[in-house]
Amino acid sequence: MFAGTEGQLSPAQRAQVLHQFGLDRPLAIQYVLWLWNVLRGNFGWSFRSGQPVAGLLASRLPVTIELAVLSVGAAAAAGVPLGVLASTARSVRAKTLVQVVGLAGLSVPNFWIAVLLIIVASYAFHWLPALIFASPFAQPWVNLQQMLLPVLSLALGLAAVVVRMTRSAMLEALGQEYVRVARAKGLAARAVLLRHAMRNALIPVVTVLGLQMGYLLGGVVITEQIFGLPGLGWTLLNGVYQRDYPVVQGAVMLFAVMFVLTNLTVDLLYTSLDPRIRYQ
Amino acid sequence: MSDADASRGPVAARRGAPRPAWRARALRRTPVALVGAATVACIACVALAAPVLAPRDPVAQTATPLLPPGHGSLAGTDELGRDELSRLIYGARVSLYVGVLAVGIALGLGATSGILAGFYGGWVDNVTMRTMDVLFSLPALVLAIAITSILGPGVTNVMVAVGIVYAPTFARIARGPTLAVVGLPYIEAARALGASNRTIVLRHILPNVSAPLLVQTTVSLSTAILTEAALSFLGLGTQPPTASWGLMLSAARQYMLLDPWIAVLPGCAIAVTVLGFNLLGDGLRDLLDPRIRTL
Description:
The structure holds two protein chains of two kinds. Chain A is mainly alpha-helical. Chain A has a single domain (60-273), classed as Orthogonal Bundle (MetI-like fold), CATH 1.10.3720. Chain A has helices at 11-20, 27-39, 53-87, 92-107, 110-124, 140-174, 177-184, 189-227, 232-241, 245-273. The model of chain A has no long low-confidence stretch (mean pLDDT 83). By secondary structure, chain B is mainly α. Helix content of chain B is 72%, strand content 0%. In chain B, helix 3 (31-48) crosses helix 5 (84-120). The A-B interface holds A 96, 99-100, 103-104, 106-109, 111-112, 115-116, 118-119, 122-123, 168, 171-172, 213-219, 221-222, 225-226, 236-237, 239-241, 243, 248, 252, 255-256, 259-260 and B 31-32, 137-143, 145-146, 148-149, 222, 226, 229-230, 233-236, 249, 252-253, 256-257, 260, 263-264, 266-267, 270-271, 274-275, 278-279, 282, 295.
């Protein structure tokens, strides 16, 4: 029995469908039942396909995690070194340039970058990745090609934000007394910059990266839609378009879990970055 | 963002604008804010004067579809033969209208509940802030998508969704400074003089909260405009045939390899507008937050 055929159903069939999905009960009871089932690992059944939502989401989750991890990794790999480099230039002009670049990273919509990347890739390079999604374990090379443009579209803006954060955190660290001591005892400028200043500057950078995960997880939804990656965001949007509410509920729930877990990871990362911070 | 409230000391409840000359001088020292303000002012003028500025009707099919810029119309035509420039100009209206009203909802909901939570403390504080924490546990765009999927697509629902999504930020920002001043002697003095809670909140607490709220309002305008564009891009926001930048970009996806212009221009419009608000907000933060200014 598929939803979307309501108009052709007799009242008895309609009542039967509603009963089958538990939609004939009061909203509050539906919610409590849903919550109880979620706690036992049952996310309900898709209105469209009748498939269990838990299995559907579990199969889509790895794509989203891969996309998010690669994007954050790429943004950090590009942004942190550039930010450290930018911290060695102290002029007002350098400050303004980094400020504008960082704000531009926040301002340019990632779905527009995605569209531009597709145009550039197909016009200039006559290249577009394979359309059918390949798993990173079965076809790692094809998968990497498919991930290239989506990751770029998410990482470019984020990297600009990271450059700015890293620079201002580095400048604050470089102003500390221990940096002056390290310089006074004749350490090489490189060692002072990387071992003394950067270790400390990374703490606020990690915080911002963690906070940006929220922005990133939102961006993932659109990016997956544009590039046709069958991840959690793609599933969420198709759920919305098809009014498949159990799928929407489950996907939103998983996004929240991922978001909260990221923030927890960031908090735990502090202790290894900064031994002064201890959780009781 | 949240460190703005921690550093803020109490400001005596004074009426009128404090030291306008100092503000003007500082504004000149932050050219970035000026550029942002100028950009925002330009976009606002374009939005207000749209009927005068637009060369053609933004929803009328007036020429051959997918004309590149130049051939009789400055920015070419879209996939249905509508004038692209006119649609860009009218799109500014939608963006600003949705942005301003959505942030208004967020500010109203968030600031009110944040100030009341800080002022009354106890269970009011707990219930309010835990509700905000729940909203905070979702990525903004995902929450906005969830809300529009319940309310249905459309401009009004997008405004409500974005307003709810950004309310928790305002609540946290308003609560901090409120907590910082609520136990100070001058509040006690005001109460001893017989001032009502209403007077205390409006005249003695609000001035302490207004600076961080102003910064957050500006920054939120940029994210609200981005969220509207994203939701419209996904087909959940502004509905056709209204000219909205996100919607134009979404339609352009199918034709972008035939005519890249229709994919480039709306994105430019979004990026410039959002950057304008971000520059202004960043400059205002430098200006109004003395601790960050010294960095």
